[in-house]
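Below: protein 1.
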Amino acid sequence: MPDAHGERQWLELIDADGATWLFDVAFLLSDYRCIYGEGCRSIEPEPDPTETIGCCSHGAHFIDKDDRREVLEAAARLRPDQWQYYDRAMERGGPLKKRSGDWTTRKADGACIFLNRDGFEGGSGCALHIGALEAGERPLDWKPQVCWQVPIRLDVHTDDYGHETVMVRAWQRRDWGPGGDDFNWWCTESPDAHIGADPFYVTAAEELEELIGSDLYQRLVASLQRRRTETPVRLG
C-alpha cells in the first residue's frame, strides 16, 4: 500500500526467462471488484440508470488477428436467444468492422453489438460472456482480450540491452489516451468499486494466471499472502 509519502509499493519477481515483473501491491491487495450491474455508472457523461452499459459504450478494440479470430469463432456459436443483436450483426456482415485502420466490434444502439441491454430475456451483459458460461467454458476464451484483461494493465518496457520489465497495475483513465479524460467515471479510481470480500488477486485469479502464467501467479500469491493485513487496502 502507499507509504506516508504516497509512494506506491512494488513487489518484484523474476520469471524463468529472466524478465522482471513489478506488481502493484496496493492494487492486488485492495478490495476492488467489478460492480457491473451493481452500481456501475458507466463511463459516459450521464450515469447509466440500468447499470448495465459499463465500459462497453465504445466497443472493443482488438490486439491482433488471433484475438479477432477467436471472437469470431465464439460469435458463431451464439444463438439468437443469447444475443440480442444477433440479427443486426448478420445483416451488417458480422459483428466486427474496421475503423481508422483498427478492427473493433460494431456498435448497436450506442454500445458494443455484443452487449445485451437491460430487460433482454437471454440476460443483460456481454453475449459472449453469457454464451461461454452456458457452454461451460471460460468467458476469457470467448471475449476480446481487452474486455477480460481490464482493469488489469500490463506495461511492458525493454531497455537498451533487451531486458524486459513488466509492470502489473490498475488500468487508469490515462491509459486510454486523451479519450480517457472524457470519462465521467472510472471504476478503479472510485471507492464505489472497492467493496470486495476478498483481495483483488484472489477474485481475479483466473485473469492474472492467464496473463502472467501459473508458476509466476503461484509465487505472487505466496508473496502477497505474507503481506496481507486484516484491513483491505483501498485505492479509491
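Below: protein 2.
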Amino acid sequence: MSYIKARFYDTRKIFQVEGVWQKDINKNDLLVVKSEKGDEIAKVIGYSKEPSPAKAMFLRKATEEDIKRHEENEKKAEEAFQYCKNKIQQYGLDMKLIKSYITLDSTRVFFYYTSSQRIDFRNLVKDLAKYLKKRIEMRQIGVRDAIQMMGWIGNCGDVPCCYKFAESFESISLRDIEEQNLPLSPSKFTGPCGRLVCCLGFERDNYIVKNILPEVGTHICYQGQEVKILHIDPLKETVVLDKGDKKEEVKLELILPFGYQNAIKSCKKCSCCRKTQKEDENFAILYE
C-alpha cells in the first residue's frame, strides 16, 4: 500500500492526503485540503509506502480560481508581514517574525515567530485584527521549524534535509557523533538552526552492529587468546584487536556468532535495546 504525500505552503511540512483515489492524483498536482488551519492549497510531492503522522482531508483539485485566490492571499500576507513586523518594533517585543500566512478561505491569518521567552502580544493581536479584519493566530515555532519554512544553506553546501524531504525531526545527540567514529566536535556538525545536523540520524542503522559488540577497550577471548578491542569500523565490517605484541584487523564475522545479521535486522526495528539509551536521552535534552 502506498500513500499520497503533499506539502503545505506555509510550514513546508509533509503530510498524508486522505479521502481520494490514488489514480486521480499525480506528482506536482495542486490540491485543496482541509487541515486544522482550515481550507488550504498543498502541492503533491509523490507517493510513499510509509504513512505520515500528519494528515489532511482531500477536498478537490485546485481550480484556476483557487490558485488565483491563493496568489492574492500570498500578496496580502506579505503586506500583513511587514505591518506586523513594524508593530513588533513599535512595542519592543522580543520575538522574530518568520512568516505570515492566509488560508485559502481567507478566514484566518497566521503569524509564525521564534522567541526565547513567552511574549505578551495582546496589544499586537488587537492591532492586527483591527487592520486585517480577520481572526489572528500567533504561533511560536522552534528554530528547526524556522529553517524548514525558510530554507538555508547547510554545511554540505546544499539546502537542509528538513527543507527538502524530511517529514519529522529526530533527536540527535553527541552519542551519534561518537558512535559514527567522528571527531567529538559539535561545532563541526551544527546545522544552520544551531542544532546538531539531522543527517547524523540517517546513518544510525549502519552502526547498529556496535550495539551487539563489546565496547572499545573491552578484553575478549579470540582464538584462545585474550585481546583488547581498539576500534570498531561498522562500514568496513572490521574490528581492530590488540594482541599485545601486534595489532590485527579482523572481520566481524570472526568475532560475532553465526547469524548475527539477523540480530542487526531486529535492532533496526527497535531502538529500546540500545545500551546507551539513557545517555542518549540526556544528550538529547541538551541539543533538542
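The first strand starts at residue 3 and ends at 8.
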